[in-house]
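User: Continuing from earlier, I have the next pair ready.

Assistant: Great, send them over.

User: Here they are, in order.

Assistant: Folding the first of the pair now:
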Amino acid sequence: MSRRLFSGAMLGGLVAAGGAAAWGVTRKDDDSGDEARLGAPATELRGMWVASVANRDWPSRPGLTAKQQRAELIAHLDTAVKRRLNAVIFQVRPAADALWPSPYEPWSQYLTGTQGRDPGWDPLGTAVKEAHARGLELHGWFNPYRVAAHDDPKKLVASHPARKHPDWVVAYGGKLYYNPGIPAVRAFVQKAMLDALRRYPIDAVHWDDYFYPYPVAGQTFDDKAAYDEHGGGFPNRAAWRRDNIDKLVRETAAKIRQIRPGTQFGISPFGVWRNASTDPLGSDTKAGVQTYDDLYADTRKWVRKNWIDYVCPQLYWNIGFTAADYAKLLPWWAKVAKGSGTRLYVGEALYKAGDPAQPAAWQKPGELSRHLTFARDHPQVRGHVFFSAKEVREDRSGAMARVVADHYKRRVNPPN
């Protein structure tokens, strides 16, 4: 399942309430207001994700020529400029592989259709150069622990580290993952990801919402041997797992500062840290997944302790949605970020706009514009990132055009 599908599937099966409950007013589809009236900030992040996993955004299919792949990538960058965005978050390590000539991991299968096959050019190097030429930041998007969307190690190229170190790998939910509880794994994935930072002047190292995998009913992530060996001193396995992810975050942050000072480190977690019914510090939500408890990612701590430069929670729900109301979650995150040194950006579900399978609110082209209007009242929000590039280009419902017309009348720089 795509990471974006979890925004609906992991909310306990609740349906949208819809409407203006969170606003306390009657909403109209044309009440977003324009940039001049709202007082647009002098700087803000305006980004889009470009997903390569499963050829979601780019390349459109495996096996295109180098010239065709490059043309598609450039077209996405040009679309970002056209929409007056200033940052592109480019997925360059979708599954223990690489979209650059890495000495540690194989070329991604999403380029040629065959894992390990050289595509004949350097996608990441090209993306950095061409993005900067257009005045865009280029954030390299890495997935730390995902190995494959299947559970058969023999399908991996023979030179793959997961085949050389089978003890590093856990099969779970029909997929393969590196085990975060093994110190050698943590050291290796950092080395593999940060090779890109050593080679290219990317503006940020970016992670999404996958740490320990999302729960799969009836299955157990088998890390007992690692826990028995490395979990001494922790009250339970959950605390040990959270510490493993905390270490990954802290160590990566320190290495980024060493390798290329000034490079940002950002994470875009699932939008719910904990429900208030679980923890009084949590949000007024009824999510079926909580990052602290289910992914073992203490995202609130990372913000409060300034371990990361920015957080971009995936707030992929409409205003008034019962289980996870955008108008309740955004203020919660703003409160978490307030007084910290961590910038708050908001992940926006452009992919839902105009999708007939989504709640009624998403059938109105002004829903996303209202999100940005709402965010203007929360100074901790320093920008928005849209999922994803394909929808930014196609804009089937006109929602992105509405955002641009209402809020992006002129280009601005991202925050320094």
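And the other member of the pair:
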Amino acid sequence: MKLVVQVKLTPDARQAPVVERTLHAANEAATWVSAVSFKHFRLKGSVRELRKLCYGELKARGFGAQAAQHIIKRVADAYTTLRANIKAGNLGPEGSKRRRKAESKPVTFRPDAAHTYDDRCLSWNYDAQTVSIWTLAGRVKNVRFACSPAALKQLTAHRQGESDLIERDGRLFLIATIDVPDPEVFEPKGFIGVDRGINNLATTSDGDNHSGRRLGRYRRWQARKKAELQAKQTRSAKQLLKKRARREARHATHVNHKISKTVVAVAQRTERGIALEELGGIRERVTVPRDQRARQSSWPFHQLGAFITYKARRAGVPFIEVDPAYTSQRCPRCGHTERANRRTRDHFHCRRCGLAGPADHVAGANIAERGATAWVFVNMPDPVPV
């Protein structure tokens, strides 16, 4: 299983300007290669064709062979991703304003965007916690990095492949890829169903509820502060807006990490699997009032599911996604499904058998039941040929 580990570079006063200048120059060169690609091939530039057009110029700008190859590949990968998003409809239907804007100009790269380094350009010394990194001014050695003991242990044992150098808020970071072996998945004795929502971020079939009330107050406070800054329309206000956006994103990530860690720990301790709703396209399927659109669109549902998925995989916990249709309207005891079973958002009451309880808890129970059924079908042995 491939994961990433982030470490903070702590270069001295002589090393820092050299590394930063190299990163900015690499992104400036990537923007130039992107313009060449767009001029000649629109959105369909390939590594092979771009190498013919741009490799010589990149070498003349002082980039080494490996650095030039990585710049060209980054540009080609960016256009591949853009074409995939257009094909998937993520930028809207054909003719929409957002799609026309994406198709009408070349991809650009921020000065502090991530640049790729392979083992020829970047070498690690785990004992001394230093790296040796290629720059436009030559090889810079003994650049110190800082990370937790757990991250250092993972790097030492499992680091493989390329690493990305990125600048964030004036600080330099390296994002390294690690390949952790998957543990053997145990046979589950049952399933925990997890219902995701906005007011209740996650509710399990066991009745554990991770409420979003405190988070809601935090996000409303952030929204008021952002509105005050937007009204000023000054340069410093715009910088503060970006800073607040990153802080809010970090907070959401932290909350999702805590919830996913708790769910996976309970499943592992009780030797059960985890069942989640498949919520792809939820923002397109669900219509909410105007005053709730920002609230629904800003919470990272997918991130919570991704965290539960990879943590379950690391722990060897069985995991499966199920159809979310009518999970909050179906009675888990008698199977009766009716919209009137859930007259309010928070309360469920079956009109046939009288089962009543919190609606999110009932949905979690239905998800757990579907997970157990789906697991049997997925892991059913192939039939013996006649």
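Worth noting for the second one:
The two ends are 38 Å apart (CA to CA). The CA atoms of residues 84 and 90 lie 9 Å apart.
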